[in-house]
Protein backbone atom coordinates (compact mmCIF):
# COMPACT_ATOMS: atom_id res chain seq x y z
CA UNK A 1 0.00 0.00 0.00
CA UNK A 2 1.37 3.41 -0.96
CA UNK A 3 1.35 5.67 2.10
CA UNK A 4 2.56 8.68 0.14
CA UNK A 5 -0.36 9.17 -2.25
CA UNK A 6 -0.74 12.99 -2.17
CA UNK A 7 -4.35 13.01 -3.43
CA UNK A 8 -5.78 10.61 -0.85
CA UNK A 9 -3.60 11.99 1.95
CA UNK A 10 -4.87 15.52 1.26
CA UNK A 11 -8.47 14.27 1.04
CA UNK A 12 -8.27 12.45 4.38
CA UNK A 13 -6.31 15.16 6.15
CA UNK A 14 -8.97 17.73 5.27
CA UNK A 15 -12.05 15.81 6.29
CA UNK A 16 -10.37 14.46 9.45
CA UNK A 17 -9.25 17.97 10.41
CA UNK A 18 -12.87 19.13 10.12
CA UNK A 19 -14.05 16.13 12.14
CA UNK A 20 -11.58 16.59 15.01
CA UNK A 21 -12.08 20.35 15.01
CA UNK A 22 -15.79 19.69 15.53
CA UNK A 23 -15.14 17.48 18.58
CA UNK A 24 -14.82 20.63 20.69
CA UNK A 25 -17.85 22.33 19.17
CA UNK A 26 -21.61 22.02 19.95
CA UNK A 27 -23.23 18.63 19.28
CA UNK A 28 -25.18 19.84 16.23
CA UNK A 29 -22.00 20.88 14.42
CA UNK A 30 -20.22 17.74 15.56
CA UNK A 31 -23.03 15.52 14.22
CA UNK A 32 -22.89 17.21 10.82
CA UNK A 33 -19.10 16.76 10.75
CA UNK A 34 -19.41 13.06 11.57
CA UNK A 35 -21.80 12.47 8.67
CA UNK A 36 -19.65 14.56 6.31
CA UNK A 37 -16.64 12.49 7.28
CA UNK A 38 -18.65 9.30 6.74
CA UNK A 39 -19.67 10.52 3.28
CA UNK A 40 -16.03 11.34 2.53
CA UNK A 41 -15.03 7.78 3.38
CA UNK A 42 -17.86 6.41 1.21
CA UNK A 43 -16.61 8.59 -1.66
CA UNK A 44 -13.16 7.14 -1.06
CA UNK A 45 -14.70 3.67 -1.28
CA UNK A 46 -16.52 4.47 -4.53
CA UNK A 47 -13.58 6.11 -6.29
CA UNK A 48 -10.89 3.69 -5.15
CA UNK A 49 -12.61 0.60 -3.81
CA UNK A 50 -9.48 -1.56 -3.75
CA UNK A 51 -7.42 0.90 -1.74
CA UNK A 52 -10.24 1.77 0.66
CA UNK A 53 -10.81 -1.89 1.48
CA UNK A 54 -7.07 -2.58 1.79
CA UNK A 55 -6.70 0.31 4.26
CA UNK A 56 -9.63 -0.97 6.31
CA UNK A 57 -8.24 -4.52 6.22
CA UNK A 58 -4.87 -3.32 7.47
CA UNK A 59 -6.54 -1.32 10.23
CA UNK A 60 -8.52 -4.42 11.22
CA UNK A 61 -5.44 -6.66 11.01
CA UNK A 62 -3.49 -4.38 13.34
CA UNK A 63 -6.29 -4.01 15.88
CA UNK A 64 -8.55 -7.05 15.62
CA UNK A 65 -9.39 -7.16 19.33
CA UNK A 66 -10.89 -3.66 19.75
CA UNK A 67 -12.55 -3.95 16.31
CA UNK A 68 -14.38 -7.06 17.43
CA UNK A 69 -15.05 -5.67 20.91
CA UNK A 70 -16.61 -2.53 19.37
CA UNK A 71 -18.89 -4.61 17.15
CA UNK A 72 -19.93 -6.83 20.07
CA UNK A 73 -20.47 -3.78 22.28
CA UNK A 74 -22.68 -2.07 19.73
CA UNK A 75 -24.59 -5.31 19.07
CA UNK A 76 -25.26 -5.71 22.80
CA UNK A 77 -26.41 -2.09 22.98
CA UNK A 78 -28.97 -2.91 20.27
CA UNK A 79 -30.10 -5.99 22.23
CA UNK A 80 -30.22 -3.93 25.42
CA UNK A 81 -32.26 -1.32 23.59
CA UNK A 82 -34.76 -3.91 22.39
CA UNK A 83 -34.93 -5.17 25.96
CA UNK A 84 -36.02 -1.70 27.17
CA UNK A 85 -39.57 -0.51 27.69
CA UNK A 86 -39.13 2.78 25.86
CA UNK A 87 -38.14 1.73 22.33
CA UNK A 88 -38.10 5.30 20.99
CA UNK A 89 -35.59 6.33 23.65
CA UNK A 90 -33.63 3.16 22.92
CA UNK A 91 -33.45 4.03 19.22
CA UNK A 92 -32.04 7.45 20.12
CA UNK A 93 -29.45 5.75 22.35
CA UNK A 94 -28.45 3.33 19.59
CA UNK A 95 -28.03 6.17 17.07
CA UNK A 96 -26.02 8.15 19.62
CA UNK A 97 -23.60 5.24 20.02
CA UNK A 98 -23.05 4.73 16.28
CA UNK A 99 -19.48 6.13 16.58
CA UNK A 100 -18.50 2.79 18.12
CA UNK A 101 -18.81 1.20 14.67
CA UNK A 102 -18.42 4.29 12.46
CA UNK A 103 -15.15 5.68 13.81
CA UNK A 104 -13.02 2.52 13.43
CA UNK A 105 -13.90 2.71 9.71
CA UNK A 106 -13.79 6.41 8.86
CA UNK A 107 -10.64 6.99 10.94
CA UNK A 108 -8.76 4.06 9.35
CA UNK A 109 -7.11 6.33 6.70
CA UNK A 110 -5.05 7.75 9.60
CA UNK A 111 -2.67 4.87 8.98
CA UNK A 112 -1.88 6.44 5.59
CA UNK A 113 -0.95 9.86 6.89
CA UNK A 114 2.49 11.29 7.49
CA UNK A 115 3.48 12.71 10.93
CA UNK A 116 2.97 16.32 9.73
CA UNK A 117 -0.56 15.54 8.61
CA UNK A 118 -1.39 13.88 11.92
CA UNK A 119 -0.07 16.96 13.70
CA UNK A 120 -2.45 19.09 11.64
CA UNK A 121 -5.36 16.99 12.88
CA UNK A 122 -4.20 17.51 16.48
CA UNK A 123 -3.92 21.24 15.76
CA UNK A 124 -7.50 21.25 14.48
CA UNK A 125 -8.75 19.79 17.77
CA UNK A 126 -6.62 22.17 19.84
CA UNK A 127 -7.95 25.09 17.78
CA UNK A 128 -11.57 24.06 18.36
CA UNK A 129 -10.92 23.72 22.09
CA UNK A 130 -9.19 27.11 22.31
CA UNK A 131 -12.06 28.74 20.42
CA UNK A 132 -14.63 27.33 22.87
CA UNK A 133 -12.58 28.49 25.86
CA UNK A 134 -12.22 31.97 24.35
CA UNK A 135 -15.97 32.14 23.72
CA UNK A 136 -16.63 31.25 27.37
CA UNK A 137 -14.07 33.79 28.57
CA UNK A 138 -15.55 36.43 26.26
CA UNK A 139 -19.08 35.87 27.60
CA UNK A 140 -17.72 35.93 31.14
CA UNK A 141 -15.90 39.20 30.48
CA UNK A 142 -19.09 40.71 29.05
CA UNK A 143 -21.03 39.63 32.15
CA UNK A 144 -18.41 41.26 34.35
CA UNK A 145 -19.16 44.65 32.74
CA UNK A 146 -22.71 44.35 34.09
CA UNK A 147 -21.62 43.41 37.63
CA UNK A 148 -20.31 45.44 40.56
CA UNK A 149 -17.57 42.97 41.53
CA UNK A 150 -13.92 43.43 40.74
CA UNK A 151 -12.64 41.51 37.73
CA UNK A 152 -10.64 39.14 39.94
CA UNK A 153 -13.54 38.40 42.31
CA UNK A 154 -15.97 37.93 39.46
CA UNK A 155 -13.80 35.40 37.61
CA UNK A 156 -13.02 33.50 40.81
CA UNK A 157 -16.73 33.19 41.58
CA UNK A 158 -17.67 31.94 38.10
CA UNK A 159 -16.42 28.37 38.07
CA UNK A 160 -17.88 24.88 37.61
CA UNK A 161 -21.40 25.00 36.04
CA UNK A 162 -21.41 28.79 35.93
CA UNK A 163 -18.42 28.62 33.59
CA UNK A 164 -19.07 25.48 31.52
CA UNK A 165 -22.74 26.36 30.94
CA UNK A 166 -21.58 29.43 29.00
CA UNK A 167 -20.76 27.04 26.16
CA UNK A 168 -23.52 24.56 27.05
CA UNK A 169 -21.21 21.82 28.28
CA UNK A 170 -21.02 19.69 31.43
CA UNK A 171 -18.02 20.61 33.64
CA UNK A 172 -16.60 17.08 33.52
CA UNK A 173 -16.81 16.92 29.73
CA UNK A 174 -15.23 20.35 29.37
CA UNK A 175 -12.41 19.32 31.70
CA UNK A 176 -11.92 16.05 29.77
CA UNK A 177 -11.76 17.89 26.44
CA UNK A 178 -9.27 20.40 27.84
CA UNK A 179 -7.13 17.59 29.26
CA UNK A 180 -6.68 15.97 25.85
CA UNK A 181 -5.78 19.32 24.27
CA UNK A 182 -3.34 20.10 27.10
CA UNK A 183 -1.58 16.75 26.62
CA UNK A 184 -1.04 17.54 22.91
CA UNK A 185 0.26 21.06 23.59
CA UNK A 186 2.52 19.92 26.42
CA UNK A 187 4.00 17.22 24.19
CA UNK A 188 4.86 19.86 21.59
CA UNK A 189 6.56 22.01 24.20
CA UNK A 190 8.65 19.06 25.39
CA UNK A 191 9.67 18.31 21.81
CA UNK A 192 10.65 21.96 21.35
CA UNK A 193 8.07 23.08 18.79
CA UNK A 194 7.19 26.80 18.98
CA UNK A 195 7.55 26.78 22.75
CA UNK A 196 6.44 30.38 23.29
CA UNK A 197 3.24 30.06 21.24
CA UNK A 198 2.39 26.67 22.72
CA UNK A 199 3.13 27.95 26.24
CA UNK A 200 0.55 30.72 25.77
CA UNK A 201 -2.02 28.19 24.52
CA UNK A 202 -1.16 25.87 27.40
CA UNK A 203 -1.73 28.65 29.93
CA UNK A 204 -5.15 29.46 28.43
CA UNK A 205 -6.18 25.79 28.49
CA UNK A 206 -5.00 25.36 32.09
CA UNK A 207 -7.01 28.42 33.13
CA UNK A 208 -10.05 26.88 31.44
CA UNK A 209 -9.41 23.58 33.22
CA UNK A 210 -9.21 25.42 36.56
CA UNK A 211 -12.45 27.26 35.82
CA UNK A 212 -14.23 24.03 34.90
CA UNK A 213 -13.78 23.24 38.62
CA UNK A 214 -14.91 19.65 38.24
CA UNK A 215 -13.71 17.36 41.01
CA UNK A 216 -12.16 15.39 38.17
CA UNK A 217 -9.81 18.27 37.36
CA UNK A 218 -7.49 16.96 40.07
CA UNK A 219 -7.48 13.50 38.46
CA UNK A 220 -7.04 15.06 35.01
CA UNK A 221 -4.19 17.26 36.22
CA UNK A 222 -2.42 14.20 37.66
CA UNK A 223 -3.01 12.46 34.31
CA UNK A 224 -1.36 15.38 32.47
CA UNK A 225 1.62 15.39 34.87
CA UNK A 226 2.12 11.62 34.62
CA UNK A 227 1.83 11.78 30.82
CA UNK A 228 4.42 14.58 30.69
CA UNK A 229 6.81 12.59 32.89
CA UNK A 230 6.37 9.59 30.58
CA UNK A 231 7.16 11.76 27.54
CA UNK A 232 10.24 13.23 29.22
CA UNK A 233 11.53 9.77 30.09
CA UNK A 234 10.81 8.44 26.62
CA UNK A 235 12.56 11.36 24.89
CA UNK A 236 15.53 11.10 27.28
CA UNK A 237 15.41 14.85 27.82
CA UNK A 238 15.51 14.72 31.59
CA UNK A 239 18.04 16.94 33.34
CA UNK A 240 18.26 17.77 37.02
CA UNK A 241 17.30 21.40 36.42
CA UNK A 242 14.37 20.30 34.24
CA UNK A 243 13.16 17.87 36.91
CA UNK A 244 13.28 20.61 39.57
CA UNK A 245 11.42 23.12 37.38
CA UNK A 246 8.80 20.54 36.37
CA UNK A 247 8.31 19.47 40.01
CA UNK A 248 7.89 23.06 41.21
CA UNK A 249 5.44 23.95 38.42
CA UNK A 250 3.42 20.75 39.00
CA UNK A 251 3.26 21.42 42.74
CA UNK A 252 2.11 25.01 42.18
CA UNK A 253 -0.56 23.87 39.72
CA UNK A 254 -1.88 21.23 42.12
CA UNK A 255 -1.97 23.79 44.92
CA UNK A 256 -3.86 26.29 42.74
CA UNK A 257 -6.38 23.67 41.67
CA UNK A 258 -6.88 22.47 45.25
CA UNK A 259 -7.37 26.11 46.28
CA UNK A 260 -10.37 26.35 43.93
CA UNK A 261 -13.38 26.72 46.26
CA UNK A 262 -15.68 24.65 44.03
CA UNK A 263 -13.19 21.78 43.79
CA UNK A 264 -12.41 21.84 47.52
CA UNK A 265 -16.09 21.91 48.47
CA UNK A 266 -16.91 18.90 46.31
CA UNK A 267 -13.92 16.93 47.58
CA UNK A 268 -14.85 17.67 51.21
CA UNK A 269 -18.40 16.45 50.58
CA UNK A 270 -17.01 13.18 49.28
CA UNK A 271 -14.81 12.68 52.35
CA UNK A 272 -17.67 13.56 54.70
CA UNK A 273 -19.80 10.79 53.20
CA UNK A 274 -22.52 13.10 51.92
CA UNK A 275 -21.66 12.53 48.26
CA UNK A 276 -24.73 11.72 46.18
CA UNK A 277 -22.70 9.38 43.98
CA UNK A 278 -22.07 7.04 46.92
CA UNK A 279 -25.81 6.63 47.32
CA UNK A 280 -26.30 6.12 43.59
CA UNK A 281 -23.62 3.40 43.53
CA UNK A 282 -25.21 1.76 46.57
CA UNK A 283 -28.51 1.51 44.72
CA UNK A 284 -26.84 0.19 41.56
CA UNK A 285 -24.97 -2.55 43.44
CA UNK A 286 -27.94 -3.53 45.58
CA UNK A 287 -30.20 -3.70 42.52
CA UNK A 288 -27.83 -6.22 40.92
CA UNK A 289 -27.49 -8.21 44.16
CA UNK A 290 -31.28 -8.40 44.56
CA UNK A 291 -31.74 -9.73 41.03
CA UNK A 292 -28.65 -11.64 39.74
CA UNK A 293 -30.40 -12.27 36.39
CA UNK A 294 -29.57 -8.63 35.56
CA UNK A 295 -25.99 -9.80 34.99
CA UNK A 296 -27.09 -11.66 31.84
CA UNK A 297 -28.86 -9.03 29.71
CA UNK A 298 -29.31 -6.17 32.16
CA UNK A 299 -32.52 -4.24 32.67
CA UNK A 300 -32.35 -2.56 29.25
CA UNK A 301 -29.90 0.14 28.23
CA UNK A 302 -32.44 2.95 28.64
CA UNK A 303 -34.13 1.51 31.71
CA UNK A 304 -31.25 2.13 34.10
CA UNK A 305 -32.69 5.41 35.37
CA UNK A 306 -36.22 4.05 36.08
CA UNK A 307 -34.68 1.05 37.85
CA UNK A 308 -32.45 3.20 40.04
CA UNK A 309 -35.29 5.67 40.64
CA UNK A 310 -37.27 2.92 42.34
CA UNK A 311 -34.36 2.27 44.69
CA UNK A 312 -33.87 5.99 45.41
CA UNK A 313 -37.51 6.33 46.46
CA UNK A 314 -37.39 3.20 48.62
CA UNK A 315 -34.27 4.40 50.46
CA UNK A 316 -35.31 8.02 50.69
CA UNK A 317 -32.48 9.38 48.55
CA UNK A 318 -34.38 12.56 47.75
CA UNK A 319 -31.78 14.46 45.70
CA UNK A 320 -30.94 11.41 43.56
CA UNK A 321 -34.66 10.84 42.99
CA UNK A 322 -35.33 14.48 42.12
CA UNK A 323 -32.46 14.58 39.63
CA UNK A 324 -33.34 11.10 38.25
CA UNK A 325 -29.63 10.24 38.21
CA UNK A 326 -28.03 7.49 36.16
CA UNK A 327 -25.42 5.12 37.64
CA UNK A 328 -22.66 7.79 37.51
CA UNK A 329 -20.15 5.03 36.81
CA UNK A 330 -19.72 3.68 33.29
CA UNK A 331 -18.92 0.15 34.43
CA UNK A 332 -22.08 -0.02 36.57
CA UNK A 333 -24.08 1.71 33.81
CA UNK A 334 -23.15 -0.98 31.26
CA UNK A 335 -23.56 -3.76 33.83
CA UNK A 336 -27.05 -2.59 34.78
CA UNK A 337 -28.14 -1.69 31.28
CA UNK A 338 -26.77 -4.55 29.20
CA UNK A 339 -25.30 -7.12 31.54
CA UNK A 340 -21.83 -8.46 32.16
CA UNK A 341 -21.00 -9.10 28.48
CA UNK A 342 -21.57 -5.45 27.56
CA UNK A 343 -19.38 -4.30 30.44
CA UNK A 344 -16.75 -6.90 29.51
CA UNK A 345 -16.63 -5.75 25.85
CA UNK A 346 -15.88 -2.20 26.98
CA UNK A 347 -13.32 -3.46 29.49
CA UNK A 348 -11.55 -5.36 26.70
CA UNK A 349 -11.25 -2.12 24.73
CA UNK A 350 -9.72 -0.36 27.74
CA UNK A 351 -7.27 -3.16 28.52
CA UNK A 352 -6.17 -3.35 24.89
CA UNK A 353 -5.56 0.40 24.85
CA UNK A 354 -3.60 0.20 28.11
CA UNK A 355 -1.37 -2.56 26.73
CA UNK A 356 -0.70 -0.54 23.58
CA UNK A 357 -0.05 2.78 25.32
CA UNK A 358 3.30 4.11 24.13
CA UNK A 359 3.17 7.90 24.53
CA UNK A 360 2.52 10.52 27.16
CA UNK A 361 -0.65 11.71 25.43
CA UNK A 362 -2.01 8.14 25.28
CA UNK A 363 -1.24 7.63 28.97
CA UNK A 364 -2.92 10.92 29.89
CA UNK A 365 -5.98 9.93 27.86
CA UNK A 366 -6.16 6.48 29.47
CA UNK A 367 -5.91 7.79 33.04
CA UNK A 368 -8.44 10.54 32.28
CA UNK A 369 -10.92 8.04 30.79
CA UNK A 370 -10.59 5.65 33.73
CA UNK A 371 -11.00 8.46 36.24
CA UNK A 372 -14.01 9.82 34.36
CA UNK A 373 -15.62 6.39 33.97
CA UNK A 374 -15.37 5.68 37.69
CA UNK A 375 -17.44 8.71 38.72
CA UNK A 376 -19.65 9.36 35.70
CA UNK A 377 -21.45 7.60 32.86
CA UNK A 378 -19.15 9.11 30.24
CA UNK A 379 -20.82 7.25 27.36
CA UNK A 380 -24.36 8.42 28.10
CA UNK A 381 -23.91 11.69 26.21
CA UNK A 382 -22.78 12.44 22.66
CA UNK A 383 -19.77 14.54 23.63
CA UNK A 384 -18.44 11.79 25.89
CA UNK A 385 -18.93 9.11 23.22
CA UNK A 386 -17.29 11.18 20.48
CA UNK A 387 -14.29 12.19 22.59
CA UNK A 388 -13.71 8.67 23.86
CA UNK A 389 -14.24 6.69 20.66
CA UNK A 390 -12.66 9.33 18.41
CA UNK A 391 -9.42 9.63 20.32
CA UNK A 392 -9.37 5.92 21.18
CA UNK A 393 -8.99 5.07 17.50
CA UNK A 394 -6.92 8.15 16.71
CA UNK A 395 -4.25 7.11 19.20
CA UNK A 396 -4.25 3.46 18.10
CA UNK A 397 -3.99 4.33 14.40
CA UNK A 398 -1.23 6.92 14.72
CA UNK A 399 0.62 4.46 16.98
CA UNK A 400 0.38 1.88 14.21
CA UNK A 401 2.27 4.16 11.81
CA UNK A 402 5.08 4.60 14.29
CA UNK A 403 4.84 8.39 14.46
CA UNK A 404 7.41 9.86 16.82
CA UNK A 405 5.09 12.33 18.53
CA UNK A 406 2.07 10.21 19.28
Task: Write the topology of this structure.
Elements: H1 6-22, H2 27-47, H3 49-62, H4 64-82, H5 87-96, H6 99-106, H7 115-145, H8 151-157, H9 161-164, H10 171-190, H11 195-212, H12 216-235, H13 240-258, H14 261-272, H15 276-290, H16 294-297, H17 304-315, H18 318-323, H19 330-338, H20 340-355, H21 360-375, H22 382-400
Helix pairs in contact: 1-2, 1-7, 2-3, 4-5, 4-20, 6-22, 7-10, 7-11, 10-11, 10-12, 10-21, 12-13, 12-21, 15-17, 19-20
Descriptive keywords:
406 residues; disordered C terminus; 78% helix; 22 helices; mainly alpha
- Could you list the spans in which at least 5 consecutive residues all have pLDDT below 50? 402-406
Largest sheet properties: none
On the 0-100 scale, what is the average pLDDT?
88
Order of helices and strands: HHHHHHHHHHHHHHHHHHHHHH
Report helical residue fraction. Answer: over 70%
Return Rg in Å.
Answer: 22 Å
Shape designation:
globular
Give the terminus-to-terminus CA distance.
22 Å
Report the structural category. mainly alpha
> What is the strand content?
under 5%
Number of strands: 0
- Helix count from the secondary structure assignment: 22
Amino acid sequence: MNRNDPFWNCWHTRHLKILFFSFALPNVINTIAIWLSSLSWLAYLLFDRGKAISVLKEAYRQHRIPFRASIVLFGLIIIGGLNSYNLILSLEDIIQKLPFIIFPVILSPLILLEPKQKEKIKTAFISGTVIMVLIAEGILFYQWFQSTQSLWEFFLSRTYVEFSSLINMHPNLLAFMLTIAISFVLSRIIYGHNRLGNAIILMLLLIGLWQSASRLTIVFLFAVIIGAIYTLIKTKRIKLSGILIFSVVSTILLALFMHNDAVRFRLLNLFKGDEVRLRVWTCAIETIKDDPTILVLGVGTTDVKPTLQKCYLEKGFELAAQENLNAHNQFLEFLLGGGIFLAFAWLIMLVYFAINTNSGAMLTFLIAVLGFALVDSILNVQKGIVLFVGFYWFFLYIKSTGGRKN
